[in-house]
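Anyone else keep sequences and structure tokens together like this?

Example one:
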Amino acid sequence: MRLALTVAVACATVIVVVVIVSARAGVGTASGAPPTKTDGFYGAVMPASFPAVDFALRDQYGKTVRLSDFRGQVVAAAFVYSTCASTCPLVVEQLKNAADQLPRPIPILAITVDPKQDTPANVNAFLVKEQVVGQLDYLVGSRATMTPIWKQFGVQPQLAVNSSKSDHSVLLLLFDKAGRARVAYTDVSDMDPGYIDADIYTLQHEPLPRPLPARVSI
């Protein structure tokens, strides 16, 4: 009996280690099928012509945050809204799980797709509920301010009024150290934390281009 229990515990431990290592390397374990990369990334690679950009928005504390503040760092950004009860919590959860696997934290931005519903109270409630207080900057602005940013990244904002059901574009972006959007995830089912983590790791180990490209303000 003791031998059987010892073997069972050992096997369980091996399985857990395999799952953890596989997730860290971006290897899917649910189906057993190996993941595929395109141009070195698991997410969709943005066109090479996509420019380095900059924008300035207020965070949940009223502080102005500029994308250029993070020059030299890889940045993750998700387009969400605080009263969403479907896709947005899933996107933030997967992004949080990916960030938790990194040896050092990176800047994480949540960018509004529904300025009207993203009131300070709703935003704070969302951050508490998703357990990401202090882990990300939730950026908001008026619809007029947000429109060119949505257009730049091909985002359809939330259309339904006072709705918890999402009808906006699903988008998670990884910006490289020069401020270019390099990798995109547009389907929640593809947002595996291991894939995101691996793509961040790849971007972090790219050399910073010299000279740095000029940024387009939006």
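And example two:
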Amino acid sequence: MERWTRSREWWLAAALVGVYGVLAILIRAAPDNIVDRTVLDWVWSLDLPILDGAAERISWFTDLRPRLVLGFVGVLGIALSGRHRLAAATAVAAAITVIPIDGLDLAGGFVADRIRPSGAPFLAYPSGHTLGTIVQYGFGIYLVLRLGLHRRFTLPLVALLALPIVLVGPARVFVGVHWPTDVLGAYLLGAASVIALVLLLETGDKWFAQRSLFGDSLRPSLAPSTTSSR
């Protein structure tokens, strides 16, 4: 049953990548399509200074450098909390997937062959900001849920991690550096990447456990503590 479930998850990830690829082909066929143009014109027509400032701040926060710093701090925090196996499995899963994700990102850009709506001569599809944010914070949500923290900590952390995922796509469209379909493609590839990361993480945890390389377990014990309180 577990093997079938994992197979289903891999197929889901593959399907998302397939839709991502089909979208790139459609964009190449109609780079300045009516859907993208209509949505972009409506967003730009809002012309609200407060939204401009918020979108710029969101774009800065979801840039590569801040995300790398937060990612390092997160893994270090997990290791310092005593969850060494989880930290190691996270690092291995991230190292394995970074090149394939970047490769799919670049391949989508070459297939779509579309520049930014601002006219900047850079590949627009998919939105790199959006993709990186979804992968990092989406995977972070999974890690928080696996840590087995008390609900008073889990819910705020999940909400905090979900916020950049929700805001980054609209922000990239609002500042005029990406078309709406660039963002859609990033969400598709990002979701597939998170699924792959989770599956690789669980595989790595089992591999470490079989070799007794670390003493802790990825899955927190649900058994009641045998230590009596005083």
